[in-house]
Amino acid sequence: MSGSGLGLVTTRHAVVATPQHPLRLVGGGVLEHVEVAYETYGELSPARDNVVLVAHALTGDAHAAGHHGDPARRGWWDDLIGPGRAVDTDRFFVVCPNLLGGCRGTTGPSSTDPATGRAYGPDFPDLEMGDLVAVHRRLLEHLGVGTVHAGVGGSLGGMQLLQWLGEEPGRLRRAVLVAATARLTAENRGFSAVAREAITSDPDYRGGRYAEHGVVPARGLKVARMLAHLTYVSAAGLETKYGREGIESYLHHQGDAFVRRFDAGSYLTLTRLLDRFDPFADPAFAKAAAAGEPEVLAISFDSDWRFGTDHSAHIVAELEAAGLVVEHHEIASPWGHDSFLLRPPGYHELVAAFLQR
Amino acid sequence: MSGSGLGLVTTRHAVVATPQHPLRLVGGGVLEHVEVAYETYGELSPARDNVVLVAHALTGDAHAAGHHGDPARRGWWDDLIGPGRAVDTDRFFVVCPNLLGGCRGTTGPSSTDPATGRAYGPDFPDLEMGDLVAVHRRLLEHLGVGTVHAGVGGSLGGMQLLQWLGEEPGRLRRAVLVAATARLTAENRGFSAVAREAITSDPDYRGGRYAEHGVVPARGLKVARMLAHLTYVSAAGLETKYGREGIESYLHHQGDAFVRRFDAGSYLTLTRLLDRFDPFADPAFAKAAAAGEPEVLAISFDSDWRFGTDHSAHIVAELEAAGLVVEHHEIASPWGHDSFLLRPPGYHELVAAFLQR
Q: What does this protein do (chains A, B) (predicted)?
């Protein structure tokens, strides 16, 4: 929990699907070229038994810790991951891949479709959670990793790990599911629907072929992000951090910055995937997950009104009904869903203790 | 609380400001022509002492009760207002004006600016709550009404009545403030900021001169309404009414219908006014309101996360600190802020009992 953190790190890339070894998607699509951006921290042990997979959330990327040249600008989970930190890189070999369907180095809607030579755009196939997990698995094969000591993920990151527990029992020995859900509510879906409408109704969306026209649906993407940000922070957190006077300019700043770093097609693809995620709808899922006998730690935050404690409790209840004992902690934090990226008292300590078992 | 309701009603119009008797606005602007759309129900007593003013919310209109020809399509507060109902038209003379800055018959940004002969659009002056009240007062003068037996308003409607209590003590003898607030939170303002960004970034907004171009910023206005609707209903209410599967199409339906009946400029003007509303910032305000010795009933709903019980409690605390005794009831209702338009158990009964004192 101390130390100055990782130093310079670099993002690497691996090709995990080729025409000879395509990725066949759950929904029926096929991707003949999949490249994954990822970072690793720490050293793989000779026994290859010290791997921690970090799965990021909707708009995250592979750059979880350390820096890319400017020590003042560090990865999004830098205070969790590093020498002596909760995810201790003196002990663990940490792998953080950018997710499939994203736009930060891993294949997604803004990537070139090898069949046409132009960006996939609206032709990018529908993804399911299992497809994201399949890419993680291929990356670990590429790295020569079998069993995973632990997976740690927040929000959509936790959902990917949950999917993996049921899909390949035993491979993931431990999972830390932070502010995750196994099923979006109508309200969750409603906010995503508004964000998608903002994007697709932007005239620069051009039916999804904006890249070919040299434009981006920046107006819609900005509105989508401004809205999403409001749902990530609690009302009290907004009041404390930005206040009545500061909130509007803050949201504009957030929205403008997002447009520069994120792709509208990825936003559509990933929010639709989130809408559909409902693994416990299949009664076999929980049984399979329990059969792998993983250790599971669910963490939720009391002010999270997006995927709050009731969502984690739902995951716990489903897994426990299948015979697995799950640890669940609600952490007091005023910052809403965003708490998973911050450090409310007790949170990192829980993760550290769980990984050190 | 029984009866078949009012029959056919009509919307009337009154001119309450002219070049000879202009409306000088709180913020310094001047309107030389103000027309008000309003409806009345019941009969004014010979003593002119049975007036109930109904003040509507952000997107409401003068058509609160009865019907305009199709008995199946009734005013927005028809189950509250009518013969034998909580606002009993056998006893009271009910006046419901459309608010200044709106677009449903009362002067607002979509009205013609007499100085230019074209729609005001972005030139429509900034409004404050006192300006809306000033138009109410002029309408009542036009109708020959002095003291008002009671005002009843939900959300922005309640805020107009609160403003009036402090502005002209004694004129409004009773006020029912339903799901109102005296100060928006950062979160409240944030959602309005997103809605405004959606509207003003729509290319058809044309810097506010859309009417001159024969277009409307329909895409932005639709997104604004979809978003607002999510904040009007509780998460549980969305789940019950629309469910995970129905929410997206429901929001699209709501958004499309709104574009047909509401003006983007009015949305901007009125949400900015709401952002600024903060009457208790002036210590004299509460004292003035208390000096009028009005009877005040504040009603909030337990699932309202827009202007919930803490907002009503804030109003009550400020008025009571100034020496006024205020009645406040929290009503159990699963429908969030929208509850003020619905009929959760106990709500209409409270209003009826209060008005009959």
A: Transfers a succinyl group from succinyl-CoA to L-homoserine, forming succinyl-L-homoserine.
- Min Cα distance B149 → chain A (Å) is 35
Partner-chain contact B235 A187, CB within 8 Å: yes
Containing B331, the helix (H) or strand (E) segment is strand B326-331
Q: What ipTM, to 2 d.p.?
A: 0.95
Instruction: Please identify which of the residues A304, A312, A333, A339 carries the catalytic annotation.
Output: A304
Backbone angles phi, psi at B259, to 5 degrees: -60, -30
Q: What is the mean pLDDT of residues A193-197?
A: 98
Clarify whether A348 is annotated catalytic: no
Q: Is B304 in the active site?
A: yes
A337 is annotated as an active-site residue: yes
* SS3 at position B118: coil
Hey, what domains does chain B have and what are their CATH numbers?
12-183+279-355 (3.40.50.1820), 187-274 (1.10.1740.110)
pLDDT bin (cut points 50, 70, 90) of residue A24 is very high
Partner-chain contact B193 A248, CB within 8 Å: yes
Q: What is the pLDDT of residue A1?
A: 40
Residue B2: pLDDT band (50, 70, 90) is: very low
CA distance B123 to B135: 19
A223 with B223: Cβ contact below 8 A: yes
Question: Which chain A residue shows the shortest CA-CA distance from B192?
Answer: A248
Taking 90 as the threshold, does the pLDDT of residue A2 lie above it?
Answer: no
